[in-house]
């Protein structure tokens, strides 16, 4: 099976036959203040189709060349392919995409259905819709509901996005990369800027990832940024930034080529793109909410907002009292599903892994890894392999990361690998008791010679079959 990291909103613009029509005034709903105007289209499930900033000319920034753009919700899971309830097969273009309800409509032009809308005072509006399965063309509704709460304050609007699954298929499919969400801008907002480095919010310079006349932008760039924001700006240095406090992985770029950078409107094919991403398990009955902020203004405005609103701790910790906290499984492992109550109850086979979300911490601030839980195996003990992934130069460049539609030659890969070597993960080994009793296990990471500098990820490999009830994983001094 190919990598499931094929977000349909990254592809729709190029293969779609569903061009977006002109929005109906009757279908548009707006929030506005002295500076910002935000508009959603109820004909497209409440997706954002209009956003303007009076401090930047007041023009619409959102691209609507087709139904896969805008700012809208889209989710991904199995099976691959997704067959409809009456045996309907997906379009050949999207056959391997899987289960993929999106907010606007499907590849055949069937629109999602808004079932509730309300203003909540002068600064917020709420919409609930039944989405459509994008890969299909015969109007197959998603067995789920989407909710969006849009709130506008000063130069920032926030989207609180929720999926409420009601699937008849109760299979726990593997974790898939989710967009949180995807943004598409018009051509004037082409310059892609973020912070690429290992010293977040220490007044280090930002990086222009895509600029005019550099040949960059498409395929999308896939990168790690511990400041958790990415911006698209215009020639005046103003634009829109996306801040997502739950992830540090973004997919972004510009499609349309160098000649179209800096020009174009909502119905033109050229477009800027930003999507914060994370891997998530979407259970048949899950209710999952994330909140993303969109900041209008200069890079300084966007970066200041991110600095003031980030929630990164010197020692990350994950308490599984009511959710997976972004952890997921690789290999033959699964848990008891949603809702999560007090711990992750996992059944695993040998070599399966429990993998954490991409994060950021300094090795000097976290000497130990603690795992609290009860393990049970036939021989009453288990070997754990703790894989730690450091941050390296390759995290801050686009050449070595996954990107859609382009592959370097073997010589190019060798040359780049010499210039920017990847810091591969290293492993700590721990034998623990596995008799079903709850304990706190401490792994001494500081004793590992490779454990220096900045780190970004943890995964735990189980070296035999068994079960576990894991309450908490944390790094500590």
Could you describe the 3D structure shown?
The protein starts with 7 loop residues before the first helix and ends with a strand. The protein is mainly beta. The strands form five sheets. Strands 21, 22, 23, 24, 25, 26, 27, 28, 29 and 30 form a ten-stranded antiparallel β-sheet that branches. The protein has three helices and 30 strands.
Name the features.
mainly beta, single chain, 30 strands, disordered N terminus, 477 residues, ten-stranded antiparallel beta sheet
Overall mean pLDDT stands at: 90
Instruction: Return the structural class.
Output: mainly beta
What gyration radius follows from the Cα positions, in whole Å? Answer: 23 Å
Task: List how many beta strands DSSP finds.
Answer: 30
Work out the helix count. 3
Low-confidence parts:
1-18, 399-410, 416-422
Strand content: 35-45%
Shape: globular
Q: What is the subunit organization of this protein?
A: single chain
Helix percent reads: under 10%
Largest sheet, strands/sense/barrel: 10 strands, antiparallel
Straight-line N-to-C gap: 41 Å
């Amino acid at each position: 099976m190919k990598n499931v990291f094929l977000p349909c909103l990254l592809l729709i613009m190029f293969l779609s036959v569903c061009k977006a029509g002109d929005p109906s005034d009757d279908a548009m709903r707006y929030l506005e203040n002295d500076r910002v105007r935000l508009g959603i289209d109820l004909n497209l499930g409440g997706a954002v189709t209009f956003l303007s900033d009076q401090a930047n000319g007041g023009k619409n920034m959102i691209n609507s060349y087709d139904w896969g753009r805008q700012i809208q919700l889209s989710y991904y899971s199995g099976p691959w392919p997704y067959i409809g309830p009456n045996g309907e097969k997906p379009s050949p273009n999207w056959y391997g995409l899987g289960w993929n309800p999106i907010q606007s409509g499907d590849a055949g032009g069937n629109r999602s259905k808004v079932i509730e809308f309300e203003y909540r005072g002068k600064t917020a509006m709420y919409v609930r819709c039944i989405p459509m399965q994008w890969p299909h063309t015969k109007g197959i509704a998603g067995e789920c509901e989407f909710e969006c709460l849009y709130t506008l304050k000063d130069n920032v609007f926030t989207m609180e996005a929720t999926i409420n699954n009601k699937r008849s298929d109760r299979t726990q499919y593997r974790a898939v990369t989710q967009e949180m969400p995807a943004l598409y801008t018009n051509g004037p907002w082409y310059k892609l800027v973020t912070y690429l480095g290992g010293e977040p919010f220490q007044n280090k310079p930002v990086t222009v990832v895509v600029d005019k006349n550099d040949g960059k932008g498409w395929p999308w760039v896939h990168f790690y940024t511990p400041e958790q924001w990415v911006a698209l700006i215009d020639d005046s240095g103003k634009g829109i930034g996306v801040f997502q406090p739950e992830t540090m992985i973004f997919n972004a770029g510009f499609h349309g080529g160098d000649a179209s950078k800096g020009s174009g409107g909502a119905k033109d094919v050229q477009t800027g793109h930003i999507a914060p991403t994370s891997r998530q398990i979407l259970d048949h009955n899950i209710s999952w909410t994330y909140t993303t902020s969109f900041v209008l203004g200069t890079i300084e405005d966007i970066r200041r907002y991110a600095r003031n609103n980030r929630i990164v701790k010197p020692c990350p910790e994950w308490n599984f009292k009511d959710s997976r906290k972004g952890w997921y499984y690789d290999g033959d492992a699964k848990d008891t599903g949603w809702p999560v109550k007090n711990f992750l109850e996992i059944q695993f086979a040998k070599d399966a892994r429990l993998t954490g979300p991409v994060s950021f911490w300094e090795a000097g601030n976290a000497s130990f890894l603690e795992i609290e839980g009860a393990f049970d195996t036939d021989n009453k003990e288990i070997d754990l392999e703790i894989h730690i992934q450091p941050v390296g130069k390759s995290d801050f460049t686009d050449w070595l990361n996954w990107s859609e539609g382009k592959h370097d030659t073997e010589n190019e890969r060798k040359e780049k690998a010499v210039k920017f070597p990847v810091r591969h993960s290293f492993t700590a080994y721990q034998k623990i008791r596995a008799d079903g009793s709850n304990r706190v296990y401490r792994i001494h990471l500081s004793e590992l010679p490779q454990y220096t500098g900045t780190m970004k990820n943890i995964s735990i490999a189980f070296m035999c079959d068994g079960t576990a009830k894991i309450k908490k994983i944390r790094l500590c001094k």
